[in-house]
Amino acid sequence: MARIAVIGAGMGSLATAARLATGGHQVVVHERAASHGGAVGRFAEGGFAFDTGPGLLLLPAVYRDLFVKTGRESLEATVGLTQADPASRHLFADGTEVSLPNASRSGVIEALDAAFGPGSGVRWSDVLARARQAWEATRRPLLEEAVGNAPVPAADPYPAVARRGLFRRGAPSLARVAAAELGDPRLAALLESYPVDYGLDPRTVPGSAAVLPYLEATFGVWYVRGGLRALADAVYERCLARQVEFRFGVAVTGLLAKDGRAAGVELADGSRSEADLVVAGAPLPALIAAGVLPAGPGGPAAGPGPSGEPGRCTVHMALRGARPAGTAHRTVVHAADREGALDWVFAPGDRHRGALGAAAADAGDPLAGRITVTVLRPDDPELRPDDAHEALTLTATVPRHAPGGGRPVDGTVDWAAPGAAEGFAARMVAVAEAAVPSLRERELWRRVRTPADTERETGAPGGSVPAPALAGAEGALLRPANRSALPGLYVVGGWAHPGGGLPHAGMAGAIVADLIAGGPGGSR
User: By CB neighbour count within 10 A (0-12 exposed, 13-18 middle, 19+ buried), where does 93 fall?
Assistant: First the structure.
């Protein structure tokens, strides 16, 4: 059996380590931070606790498979897993609201018809039916198999409906699909909100991005009791049970090579950890920029992937007063100015990027109506001091961080600039009051996390959050293969195949473990 060094203790690394150790390998994980989980972190203060990363889980079957393959206890025997119902609630600027039942096609059709008028539900359902065709065409090559095992469709696999000359100049973007096939701008905003949540511009991503709402509608939306950090803890404990060794608090600074193949890692304390194989699970762009991994033909590419991916701004709020019965776990408050909201996040030349420090109450605020906010209100006693209080989290997709950001050329924001984080958080809270009446009156305190914090804590460049791989766009949304050009070096994590997201991190572990075992790469 091999000695294997793993760089980073994010979810992709943990999933890989657990599988490799179960196969009898000697696995050592090197993590620069003091704890495991990567972006799946936790912030706790005064009896309140919050997820600092994702708040809901998709495709739990990926982690069910991980626990089945690595031990006796199943996923459900290890963590409390429940469906979030409704899957989401949506509020629009004209006062319309709709709650989408979890994994219920008929329920969603009925809810959309009631909110937007007869026929709305069928139009939405028809889009997801076409998204199913894209999913079936890409499920194996983009999620379940190693790069090259199954062909990725060269063209966008979403079968857009062509009418009156539309789409004859090539595959349409998801925004064009929404406008042509849904009609109602509120339905279009609903469809577009899914890629935006992953940091993708619906005006440029192909129609295949419709698989993102399809996955939620088909496989459901799930919550882990204690927050998603409890899932990271469970995978970490499974690694320990399989005798994985963890070395925290020392960064990897270099890759050892011998006879033309990876042979271990160099550490910041000057020591070396020799190994037969290396799995890099930390953000690839950061590892390459720091010289840890080779660039070019000798190592993994930093792309292709989308460039300049956005990050997230998160506001954790401790509230007085109980969470009302029947409150939706997730509510999306949509921006009144859809196009302006997309421009602020994705358009490099948007002139309002430097206005974050302005007073949120200012009637001339250039960001007014241009922010979409997701409100997460889990009904979980483990996250609050008692039933007379509530732990609430607000999130928004925002431009990535760069010192001195706000330049039109690169589409960044300096989130560390005085007043930037606090000013934007105040705007988010004001927007969220549409979903949580008297929110500011209930507030005990708030803590703000921006892409600058994400970059500092995880190493992700600019605090970017990597999106999952998607077909179409001439391959621009694909990720580097898990087996590097350098023999003995493998890569996992959001910047490697199959891209970002908790299910994708789990599948990367299955793919790499199978490749190292001599298989084709995949969960078998």
Answer: middle
